[in-house]
Amino acid sequence: MDASEQRFDSALDALDRARALATDYLASLPTRPVSYAPSIEEMAAALDEPLPDTGCDPAEAVSEWFRRAERGIVASSGPRFFGYVNGGTTPAALAGDWLASAIDQNAGMWPSSPAAAQTEQVVVRWLKELFHLPAEWVGTLTSGATTSNLVGLAAARQWAGLRLGYDAAQDGLAAGPAIPIISSTEIHASAAKALATLGLGRANVRRLPALGGSMELAALEAALAETHGPVIVIANAGEVNTGAFDHLAGIAALCRAHVPGAWLHVDAAFGLFAAASPRLRPLVAGIELADSVAADGHKWLNVPYDSGFAFVRDAELLRAAFAVSGAYIAPAPGAGLDPFVYVPEMSRRFRALPAWCALRAYGRDGYRQLVERCVDNAQQFAAWVEETPELELLAPANLIIVCFRYAPEGLDDAATDALNRRAVAEIQADGRAFVTGTVWDGRAAIRAAFDNWSTMPEDVDILAQAVAHIGARLSHR
Ligand SMILES: *Cc1c(COP(=O)(O)O)cnc(C)c1O
Predict the structure, then answer these.
(1) CA 270 to centroid of ligand 1, rounded, Å
(2) Which atom of ligand 1 sits closest to the CA of residue 84?
(3) Which residues contact 89 (CB under 8 A, 6 or more apart)?
(4) Residue 208 pLDDT > 70, yes or no?
(5) pLDDT of residue 212
(6) Of the four, 5, 400, 402, 475, which is 20 to 30 A from 440 by CA?
(7) Distance in angstroms (rounded) separating the CA atoms of residues 275 and 282
(8) Contacts of 53 (CB under 8 A, 6+ apart)
């Protein structure tokens, strides 16, 4: 590396090149194939090679990567990606994210960036206002809902340990009895992953029945009656296959009635956004009675990866879970809150900047419109599924998730499952739209999620055309 390149004024070419590639890419998003579905061999041939001995011009490196990797880029931030639950990135959020990279702040400690630390506090407050969550809760930005679940459940673990007479973070779980955990069969894989990371055990969850995706209250009441100590209850606000909501107010009432104590954690990765619309807010009624809430930024807030946020009622429990000490990081006189006291990381990206720019640029009203537009798109697609004879809607279209399948006459269950699995791969390879598969009620199914800010009714029509064409092609084989 030439020493002169340590000065950015001599390396602006590389930034210009990245900007040109990015703007061309963004301009192509409305029309480019969502996926090229390249083979493993094709991607390896494009990229796999030993570390180069000698370097090249930074601008060339950027262009070369794009050229070589392009067929493996999935247009998941574009308007015709309906897989998993992704979301895109708004112009304000993307510009904020570029700036976050350029100024490269360490958002772990106040002294390393008072700007980042203060901005994060403001973003957390704005998010609580957007979602009508209690102002006195603390919150933090995370890398996504998995880490948000980890943050909320770490506070829950701390709370339960103290009730059982030990300090889980300080002394470890071996210091006390096991902590019971109750959720439903629809607990998200990421909450189970968080439980595994926290040493609580992913197999240690009592999974109650959830007809239609919502935890059965009578089953929770019975399970709590059989649990003699403090318990952690994990509820869903927006189940991933169908968008179903647990009855949060009912669950919260049962938790409060459990005398040894019950910590209610709500996985609201995308469902929390219902609170941004007066029309949809009843879906999350009672969420303000929870002890911790996990949500995602890179989904429905439409900020770039990676971004999520967690809220916790009791700041002290959260601090105890992630406490850290060291002479070189001792709080400095006159310094504000170190954001790292609430999260598993120490050094961290300035995720608050893209979120601040988006919330500033669109405001409460912009997010209400974004949320309602996405829900309208989902309803448009669900209505089309219902009126199309070869298709079956497998669950009511809750919020932004449509769960459906091809159900042509004359095929048995196994053949119908096989057809739907093949159809998912073919829709993805077709490139007009992208959906993902799942299993619902024991049957192979297809999911479409509508949380991208830029999806328009025309894009929903393209999805419907792709689903119809590929269905027709597969059933005429
Ligand atoms: C997406 C999702 C998660 C995990 O979020 P990541 O951002 O992928 O970590 C957790 N819970 C629910 C309900 C989700 O939809």
Answers:
(1) 8
(2) 1
(3) 77, 97, 302, 303, 304, 354
(4) yes
(5) 93
(6) 475
(7) 8
(8) none
